[in-house]
C-alpha cells in the first residue's frame, strides 16, 4: 500500500514524487472539479494515506472564478477527506497563510481567528472546515509563499522579469515566510508516517524562516542568482491587484516543533538549492 497523492505537476506534487515512491494522480486521472471521482480514486487505490497536493492557486484569477476555486479547494478535499474517514486512513491537506487577515504584528498561531481577504483564501478556508468536518484522522498543514526551481512562483517570476528589466518595484509591507516546496514535502511525508503509526493530527503551521518582505525576498533572489536588478520598496497600495493580500502573513510554527519535532527550514538554503538546480 503506497501513499496516494492528488496532483502530479504542481510544485509540491513534484517534490513529493521526488522524495518517495508515491502514486500521483494528475488532472487526467482525477479532476478535482469532479469530487466524486476523487473519492472513487481513493477507494480504487486503497492507499495507506492520502496527501492532497492539488489546488486552485491563481490568487488574482480566483476573484473572478470563486465558484470554480471553491469546488477545487473545498468540495474536492471534502470528498477526499470523507473517503479517507470511511476507509480509516489518514488524510493530509495543505492550506495557506491567506486564511488570515494579515492584521497585527506577531506570527499567527493555529487557533487564531481567521478572516481571509480574498476569494482564494475563502476557498482554502472552506476546504479546511470540510476536512475537519469529515471527522477522520487528518493533518491540515498551513504554509506560505511556496517556491521551487520549477512551476509558477515568486522565484521563477522574478528570474523571468530579470531577463528584461534592470529595476523592479516590489511590495515591502507584506511580511511572510518563503517556503521551499521540498521542505513541505519532507514534512508531509514525516507527518504521514506518524499518522499511520497512530500519532494524532490536527492543524499545523509550517513556513520557512526568517520572515521577510516580498521586496527582501526579491533582493535575495537577485543576489543569489547574480543578477543586477535594483529592487525598490513600495507599499501594497502602489501595486494594485484584483485580490487583496495580508500584510502580516507570518506563521508561528511552535506547535509543529512541539508535537512532531519538526523545525521550519531556513528558506535561504532552499533558495540556494533552487538556484543551483536552475543553473545546472
Ligand atoms: N503556491 C503557494 O505559494 C502556496 C501554496 N499553498 C498550498 O499548497 C498546496 C500546493 O501548492 P503548489 O504546489 O504551490 O501549487 P501549484 O500551483 O504549483 O500546483 C497546483 C496543482 O494542482 C493541480 N490542479 C489544479 N486544478 C486541478 C484540477 N481541477 N484537477 C486536478 N488537479 C488540479 C495542478 O495541475 P495542473 O498542472 O494540471 O494544472 C497542479 O498539479 C496547495 O494546497 C496550495 O493551496 C499554500 C501556501 C502558499
Ligand atoms: C511580480 C511582482 C509582484 N509583486 C507583489 C504582488 C504580491 O503582493 C507579491 C507576491 O506576488 P505573487 O503573485 O507571487 O503572490 P501570490 O500569488 O499572492 O502568492 C501567494 O500564493 C498563494 C497560492 C498562497 O497560498 C500564498 O501563500 C502566497 O504564496 O509581490 C510586486 O510587488 N512586484 C512585482 O513585480
Ligand atoms: Mg501567484
UniProtKB/TrEMBL annotation:
It catalyses: dTDP-beta-L-rhamnose + NADP(+) = dTDP-4-dehydro-beta-L-rhamnose + NADPH + H(+). Residues 1-277 form the RmlD-like substrate binding domain. GO terms for molecular function: dTDP-4-dehydrorhamnose reductase activity. Its EC number is 1.1.1.133. It comes from the Bacteria. Its cofactor is Mg(2+). Keywords: NADP, Oxidoreductase. Pathway: Carbohydrate biosynthesis; dTDP-L-rhamnose biosynthesis. InterPro entries: dTDP_dehydrorham_reduct, NAD(P)-bd_dom_sf, RmlD-like-bd. Pfam families: RmlD_sub_bind. Binds 1 Mg(2+) ion per monomer. It is an enzyme of class 1 (oxidoreductase). Belongs to the dTDP-4-dehydrorhamnose reductase family. Catalyzes the reduction of dTDP-6-deoxy-L-lyxo-4-hexulose to yield dTDP-L-rhamnose. This is dTDP-4-dehydrorhamnose reductase. It comes from Marinovum algicola. The lineage of its organism: Bacteria, Pseudomonadati, Pseudomonadota, Alphaproteobacteria, Rhodobacterales.
Amino acid at each position: 500500500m503506497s501513499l496516494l497523492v492528488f496532483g502530479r505537476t504542481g510544485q509540491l506534487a513534484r517534490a513529493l514524487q521526488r522524495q518517495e515512491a508515491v502514486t500521483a494522480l494528475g488532472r487526467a486521472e482525477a479532476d478535482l472539479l469532479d469530487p466524486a471521482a476523487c473519492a472513487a480514486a481513493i477507494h480504487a487505490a486503497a492507499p495507506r494515506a492520502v496527501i492532497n497536493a492539488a489546488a486552485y492557486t491563481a490568487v488574482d484569477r480566483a476573484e473572478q472564478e470563486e465558484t470554480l476555486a471553491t469546488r477545487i479547494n473545498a468540495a474536492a478535499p471534502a470528498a477526499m477527506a470523507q473517503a479517507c474517514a470511511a476507509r480509516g486512513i489518514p488524510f493530509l491537506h495543505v492550506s495557506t497563510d491567506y486564511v488570515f487577515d494579515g492584521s497585527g504584528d506577531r506570527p499567527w498561531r493555529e487557533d487564531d481567528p481567521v478572516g481571509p481577504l480574498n476569494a482564494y483564501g475563502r476557498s482554502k478556508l472552506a476546504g479546511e472546515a470540510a476536512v475537519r468536518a469529515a471527522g477522520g484522522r487528518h493533518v491540515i498543514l498551513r504554509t506560505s509563499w511556496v517556491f521551487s526551481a520549477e512551476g509558477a512562483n515568486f522565484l521563477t517570476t522574478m528570474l523571468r522579469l530579470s531577463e528584461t528589466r534592470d529595476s523592479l518595484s516590489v511590495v515591502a509591507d507584506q511580511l511572510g515566510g518563503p517556503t521551499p516546496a521540498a521542505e513541505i514535502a519532507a514534512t508531509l511525508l514525516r507527518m504521514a508516517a506518524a499518522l499511520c503509526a497512530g500519532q494524532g493530527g490536527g492543524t499545523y503551521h509550517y513556513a520557512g524562516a526568517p520572515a521577510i518582505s516580498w521586496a527582501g525576498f526579491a533582493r535575495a533572489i537577485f543576489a543569489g542568482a547574480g543578477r543586477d536588478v535594483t529592487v525598490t520598496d513600495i507599499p501594497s497600495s502602489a501595486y494594485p491587484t484584483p485580490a487583496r493580500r495580508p500584510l502580516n502573513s507570518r506563521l508561528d510554527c511552535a506547535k509543529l516543533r512541539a508535537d512532531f519535532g519538526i523545525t521550519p527550514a531556513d528558506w535561504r538554503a532552499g533558495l540556494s538549492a533552487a538556484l543551483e538546480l536552475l543553473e545546472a
